[in-house]
Amino acid sequence: MSEAPIGAAAPKPAARPMSPYVTVWRWHLTMAVSIGHRATGVALYVGALILVGWAVSLAAGPGAYDLFRLVLGSILGKLVLIGITFSLFFHLANGVRHLVWDFGAGFQPKTADMTAVVVVAFAVIATLAVWVAAGMMGALA
Amino acid sequence: MSGYRTPLGRVRGLGAAKHGVGGFIAQRVSAAALVFLTLWGVFAGLHLARADYATAVVWLHAPANAILLALLIGVGVFHMRIGMAEIIVDYIERPTTKAALLTLNVFVAWLAGAIGVFSVLKVALSNGIY
Predict the structure, then answer these.
(1) CA dist B32 → B19, B76, B90 (Å)
(2) Which of A4, A41, A138, B125 has a CA that sits 20 to 30 A from residue B109's CA?
(3) In which band, very low, low, confident or very high, does the pLDDT at B10 lie, cut at 50, 70 and 90?
(4) Is the Cβ pair A95, B120 closer than 8 Å?
């Protein structure tokens, strides 16, 4: 190891790679799915409170229950429920992906990319399936 | 000063959450349960989507439905409390803000769980429709 003599002017550093932070980071799938896991988790926090609200309205009686159904059945209510359905299936599939990782498997970049695609595809298809099924059952009227 | 402490003793409690792997394991155990509970919840939700008050009450009178819904709410708030705490310790730096949000998170989760499970039991154990 050679050291520069004390007092010598430090050589001008070549252009160094920037430390990665979110605004200069090229987005890629595994990163987006990782952030999506947190985002959907927060959405499901709200979803859990809505589920508790349903139980409370049922316990409160017919008036409260009908009002709750009216709110959830509105356009805005349906949009929120579609978002929560997607969040549930996304968080569920990616949660299973995390559980597999906990056993030390699936970390190879190609595998991780592939399972990320599966998570997104499953979330989209399962959400569509549930809402199409709800429509066919006449639950959306 | 800490020369006699073991390496393990020196690192204990230094993580962002100031504790060990308890939350990590609890998060995964509850996740495994929620895989089944939430899938059941989706089917139940589809079944109840067009149910009026009387139908929903009859549905919740079935012991299996009441038990599974109480479990879904209870395990759900348990799991979401840990997840939200993880987000708070990751992003909030100021100790007082962090402590306040962590406390609020615990209050919201336990309150929601207590209200939800009580409501389920009130309907499930009541006599008929009132």
Answers:
(1) 22, 11, 24
(2) B125
(3) confident
(4) no
CB contact under 8 A, B123 and A59: yes
Q: Is the ipTM of this complex over 0.95?
A: no
Q: Does the CA dihedral A106-A111-A113-A118 come out positive or negative? A: negative
CB atoms within 10 A of CB A33: 22
Instruction: Name the token pair of B20.
Output: 């060990």
CA distance B56 to chain A (A): 8
Distance CA B90, CA B88 (A): 5
pLDDT of residue B90: 92
- Report pLDDT for B4: 84
Instruction: Encode pLDDT of B52-97 as tens digits.
Output: 999 999 999 999 999 999 999 999 999 999 999 999 999 999 999 9
Q: Which residues of chain B are within 8 Å of residue A65 when distances are taken between CB atoms?
A: 53, 56
Residue A6 pLDDT = 64
Does the distance separating the beta carbons of A99 and B80 come in below 8 Å?
no
pLDDT at A1: 47
Instruction: Kindly identify which residue of chain B lies nearest to residue A82, measuring between CA atoms.
Output: B42
Whole-number Å distance between alpha carbons of A135 and B33: 29
Residues of A in contact with B115 (CB under 8 A): 52, 55-56
